[in-house]
Amino acid sequence: MDAIGNIISNQCASVAYICRLSGKTYKHDESLPDARVKLTKQVASISTEQENVSGFQSGEDVKKPGSCSDGPTASTNDHTVVSGEIIEDRCKDTDELHKVVKKSISRIRTRAGGLEESQLIGREKEIAYLNNLISNRDNQQVQVISVYGMGGLGKTTLVDNVYQRQKLGDRFEKCVFVTIMRPFKLVELLRSLAARLHEASSRKEELIERSASTKKTMATMGVEDLIVESGRLLGGKSCLIILDDLSSITEWDQISPVFRQMEKTSRIVVTTREEDIAKHCSGQHGKIHKLQVLEQEEARQLFSEKLQTLDIRDTAIIALPKTITKLRKLQYIHAAVKSDFVPHDSESLTTRGLNRRGACTLACCIALPSIMQSHNGLSGVMVPRGLRKLRDLHTLKDVHVGRGNVVLQDIERLTGLRKLGLAGINKKNGPALCSSLSSLSRLESLSVRSSAGKPGMCGCLDMMSSPPANLQSLKLYGNLETLPEWIKELQHLVKLKLVGTKLSENDSVLKFLGNLPKLDVLDLGSQSFQGEELHFQSPQTDSTFGNLRVLKLAYIGDDSSELRTVKFEVGVMPKLELLQLLLLGVTNEVDISGLEVLPNINEVQLTVIFDIEQEKIRELHASSSQDKIWEEIDQEQKRKEGEYKNKIREQLDKNPNRPVLTWY
């Protein structure tokens, strides 16, 4: 447990890289005195304007409509609006002006609030440094500020934070943020830049531009026209331009001609991963800044305060440290290995007698992931007590609870859970499991798996008084023999998956499942039923499986339960569109009948691998040269597969819907 804690601690310094890969932005609160001062001024300005409007409505001394053209200019953080135009709008519709004023105040407050909540952990010095460089008026020429560093450090988030602060101020007439897309296309970048410059233009400029009869639309402009257009929009204006994710010197050389007409107090900020690109862009008069990796304490703070997703699926981690309970913002915990295989005692590939293809399929796709997952008897990740502290948790999968009831008691307190996956269920913790599930009223998805190699979950789920009413997806792995009665109450259940449940009395169970009103996908995995036959019978009253669209049947050869027949009768599954059949290690053909009576079936997906005859196995053991024997085995497999596919295809040809047969 301590080792896992040390791993997480040592890796904290590179958590920004993980954040970038997951597409997350992690930020931190800090005071913003400068932004607040600017905000206060702008809100006061707009509030005064609102008072003037109120005065006009009440007959107080304000300018009359005829004399409103010589008023001063009122400024917002997005664009400049001539005051005369505002007063003219007032004269036309004062109610509409009230709405505009309120909307402007709301927008400014929202942006300031967003800035207050969007402070970057450990980047306060960089933010102050870049803001000072950008705001400095001493340098009377266009300056390029380049920020560089390895991918994932947070360059984009850093410059975006600075950009948003600058937009709140009045230092620049136009502020534009452009991300360079991949693959790089100059015309697309210039079109994006020009479009954003248009958006940042004042209302008066827009009126002038619209009156130009010879103006081309940007969608039809080529590179030269776009350079001219962007230069026109930049000309004589103090602008802040952000170019995010520049990847080569060539890209800069193609873009930079646009900025020749910029006003000398303008600033360009470039982000890139390479130092040589940064130096080339900034030149002699610009500045470059290397973004460093976060200090360990800052990374730890970022990890604990902002981390929302912890995904350790398909890793060797079998237990989470107690410090996990300090990550109070966690919403998603994903753990363990995906596997539909329920291992049994004395399970081995050699006893199955599969051919090379079958053995590889079974080993690589099913058995080996399960063996790795069930190492030390676990088929889920161990978690510490105290999980109840993670009140924002939305998803918890897959957690092993087989060593006591403490974790289940914690889970009972996580009333916001939507998705839950549990492993290690047995008779001892069954009552606590049922109690926990009854408290999770918001639960939509549930996966329950018995301990690896154990007797299963017989009777473990029967004591639930009230199942989660909103449950839409249910997956059960392990020996049940009979389905819990409460499943009948799941009126919103859409997906049901059963693996290794070994249900008896197949006819009554299928009737039970067929009455679930919203069941859309039914997945019957290996050993989900005992016996040799699955018989989907015609409904006596209403349709059985009336809303089912997808049916998946999987069978892996086993002497204790050999599936021989699957039969569909008229009237069953009227909306079924897809049938998936996975048959591995079968001794004899599984007789599938009734496909011609399924009215909406569009596709049957089939995989079948037959068992190897014992005589051939003995020959393999006795022979010193096995290649010829394997060749004979493969030929026999192909012959059986071809015959089986032809039988399935004959039924499908009789179906009026003409469904297709595919091999998957």
From TrEMBL:
One of its GO terms (molecular function) is ADP binding. Residues 50-78, 641-664 are annotated as: Disordered. One of its GO terms (biological process) is defense response to other organism. Keywords: Repeat. InterPro entries: Disease_R_plants, LRR_dom_sf, LRR_R13L4/SHOC2-like, NB-ARC, P-loop_NTPase. It comes from the Eukaryota. Residues 641-656 have a biased composition (Basic and acidic residues). Residues 132-306 form the NB-ARC domain. Residues 380-618 form the Disease resistance R13L4/SHOC-2-like LRR domain. This is Uncharacterized protein. It comes from Eragrostis curvula. The lineage of its organism: Eukaryota, Viridiplantae, Streptophyta, Embryophyta, Tracheophyta.
